[in-house]
Each structure stands twice: as structure tokens, then as C-alpha cells.
Amino acid sequence: MQELNIGGKLLDEEQIAQKVREMAKEIEEEFEGEEIYVIGILKGACIFVSDLIRHLNCPVKLDFMSLSSYGMSLESSGVVKILKDLDMDIEGKNVLVVEDIIDTGLTMEYLKGYLTARKCKKLKICTLLDKPEGRKCDIVADFTGFHLPDEFIIGYGIDCQENYRNLPYIAYVK
Ligand code: IMP
Ligand code: MG
């Protein structure tokens, strides 16, 4: 029974949907209507990126990367491994990285360096959720949906040992 370990709802479907629309507006303005190469970070950002791009009124190309820092553990190891690299060439392009949640920031710090080396025109980072108390480096996203306390978060694509990604709302684990 998957419901047993859900600690409490933090953000409901309407709060998330409203925020996604607001973020899409800000992103459109930042890129001034130019084409954006959106990179969704698997698997956690799959639902967020799908919702977000449907509110972007500008040309969009979509790609995915899969990174591993946690494995099956609940704590970030700080060691980032690329499990799936980009399919597209991003040199000279506007790039928007779309992440589900930033905690230690180590994954994003690594990714930022990795993508910067590919010489994109503009690189911006967007995260739906941020847990600033967990930070171990000074990464700040360019677009942040919600700041949350230092709890283990699930739902709306975000998992706990591969469970709960299908919850339409965001909750914490008991
Ligand atoms: P960071 O490197 O510690 O910033 O962690 C980045 C990745 O860890 C995120 O993309 C998530 O996939 C995962 N993560 C961080 N915090 C949580 C959480 O509270 N619940 C589930 N996954 C998390
Ligand atoms: Mg992730």
C-alpha cells in the first residue's frame, strides 16, 4: 500500500499548476521569444518538464539527460554519473535545464560545468523545488518554483526508492 508512508501534502495540484504557468512566463521573457533547448533531467523532472513546455509560447526543442547521484539511497553521494547524455548538439543554443529538486546542489554544479563546456549561447537552470538548507555548494537556480524545508519529498515525478512518482501532488515522507 503506497499511501502508508506519505507524511503530508505540501503542495496540491492547483498550487503546482499555477506556479508552472508563472515560471513559463518568466522563462519566455528571459529568452525573449527565441528558441529554447529544454533539457529535462530524468527521471524526477519528467512530469514538471512535460507541463512546463506546454506553457512555453516560443520554439522549443526537448532533450533529456539522466544523472545518478543518489542511486537507491536517500542521501546524495556527491558523485555524479551520466547515465544518459544529450542527443542534440547545444553549441550556440539557448539552453534551459529543468530539474525537479535541488538539495545539496552537487548534481547541478557538476551539470552546469559539463554543459558550459559545450559552449551554449545562454544556460539557465530551472527547478520546481529547492531545499536550501541542504546546500553543500553555492548553486542557485535562475528559476525556482518553491522553497521547501529539509524533508524528503515525493510526488509529481519525484520518487522515494522509485515509488510515488505518480502522485499528482507533492508530499513529504514520514
Ligand atoms: P542534489 O545533488 O543533492 O542537489 O540532489 C539532486 C537530485 O537528488 C534531485 O534531482 C533529485 O532527483 C534527488 N533529490 C534531492 N532531494 C530529494 C527529495 O527530497 N526527494 C527525492 N529526490 C530528491
Ligand atoms: Mg533528479
Structure description:
The protein has 174 residues and is of the alpha/beta class. The protein is built from three helices and nine strands, in the order E-H-E-H-E-E-E-H-E-E-E-E. Helix 2 links the parallel strand 2 and strand 3. The chain is globular, with a radius of gyration of 15 Å. The protein starts with 5 loop residues before the first strand and ends with a strand. The mean pLDDT is 93. Bound molecules: inosinic acid and magnesium ion (MG). The site of magnesium ion (MG) has 3 residues, from loops. Keywords: Cytoplasm, Glycosyltransferase, Magnesium, Metal-binding, Nucleotide-binding, Purine salvage, Transferase.
Give the mean pLDDT: 93
The H/E string reads EHEHEEEHEEEE
Structural class: alpha/beta
What fraction, in percent, of the residue positions are helical? 10-25%
Oligomeric state as shown: single chain
Q: Low-confidence parts, pLDDT < 50 over ≥5 residues?
A: none
Measured distance between first and last alpha carbons: 14 Å
Beta-strand residue fraction: 25-35%
Identify the overall geometry. Answer: globular
Largest sheet geometry: 6 strands, mixed
By DSSP, the count of extended strands is 9
Cofactor: Mg(2+)
Family: Belongs to the purine/pyrimidine phosphoribosyltransferase family.
InterPro entries: HGPRT, Hxn_phspho_trans, PRTase-like, PRTase_dom
Keywords: Cytoplasm, Glycosyltransferase, Magnesium, Metal-binding, Nucleotide-binding, Purine salvage, Transferase
